[in-house]
Specification:
single chain; alpha/beta; six-stranded parallel sheet; four-stranded parallel sheet; 12 strands; globular
Amino acid sequence: MAVTMRDVAQHAGVSPKTVSNVMSGYPFIREETRQRVLASIDALGYQLNISARNLKSGRTGIIGLAVPELSQPYFAELADAVITAAEGHGLTVMIEQTGAVRERELATLVRPRGPLVDGLLFSPLALGPDDVGHLRTGTPMVLLGERMFHGPVDHVMIDNVAGTRAVTEHLLALGRRRIAVIGTHPGELVGTAAIRYDAFAAALSDAGVEPIDRLALPADPWQRRTGAAATEALLASGAKFDAVLALNDTLAVGALHTLIKHGVRIPDDVAVAGFDDIDEARYSTPSLTTVDPGRAQIAATAVEILVGRMNGDDTDHREIVAQYELHVRESTSGH
């Protein structure tokens, strides 16, 4: 008799749902539990019989989620929101990391997926408008993130321009005029860094303030350590600044660490803000002013659209911009 998922669960001492989550790549499982389940799968020789599932229903009950990297809190929290939304439709999520590498993002699109997933949510970073032809696949798909493409698939987007302008205008309203930006990607024409920096510069110009080139600090990848290193370089340069806008929250947390280490008072001497509203932003010291890009809305909307496409919806593709919200916290308000 074939080994079932329930057999694996009993052998590992977990629930069948936990076995399903391990096989689907769900990120929020204790490593000890994951290893125990994998050991039971190996010991029993269990294999997910996708072909049998397809013969019965024509569906796998699985959707894919391709993101750059789960080590980035934004994408980890996005994955959690997608899994929650998918569970509401009785679906399991298979997660894939592309590393924001163009070849791996293209491989995600061209690899035969029909037998594996019923649909795909895809958050590309390395692809650009010239790659639009690669989006025509046989698998229902919804893009997440930047407005880099206009068709031929549905797209649920972050409002990077309005969100960045809002946080910049907040800093300007506080009287900050020498605002350093951490996380620029010099030479980038299309991408999150370019979009957010251009929106920042436009907000300054509209207020009659000229962006200062030496206050634009590159950081790549966008991680705490690169945010901290960029802030060290900023302080070492001797340039005067009264605010820091980090282009994402992990950079901002790194900047906070370095500024506090050097005795800079926040927000008295320097106000600090970020973008993404990751969970850590609420609990950093001081708590971080940031832009919530509407992650829960993005996940719920994208899953709903994808399910519609999987069920045969053939209406024109949609471009939906999520609602952002500026959260003002201690790093700029002082209370």
